[in-house]
Amino acid sequence: MGLYRSMYTKSLEQPEKFWGEIVSQFHWETPYTKFFSFNFNIKEGPIYIKWLENATTNICYNLLDRNVKLGHGDKIAFYW
């Protein structure tokens, strides 16, 4: 439980660092131009949260293809 709590705390106190480490584990076709932006104040305009603006990725590549390239093509990728 200690690891969970430290990760949770880091995600709140240093969201760009925490999530930056997570997203760095994935392949990106197009990198993001802005990592994180938000507005929670209705007086300043519409409420919004934006993550990884302009980034694109390929889910199939991240979940399957790169594991085949790493030599795991003979392993079950998904149980139904």
TrEMBL record:
Organism domain of life: Eukaryota
InterPro entries noted in UniProt: ACAS_N (IPR032387), ANL_N_sf (IPR042099)
GO molecular function: acetate-CoA ligase activity
Domain Acetyl-coenzyme A synthetase N-terminal: 4-62
Cross-referenced Pfam families: ACAS_N (PF16177)
GO term, biological process aspect, one: acetyl-CoA biosynthetic process
Protein name per the record: Acetyl-coenzyme A synthetase N-terminal domain-containing protein
Species for this entry: Rhynocoris fuscipes
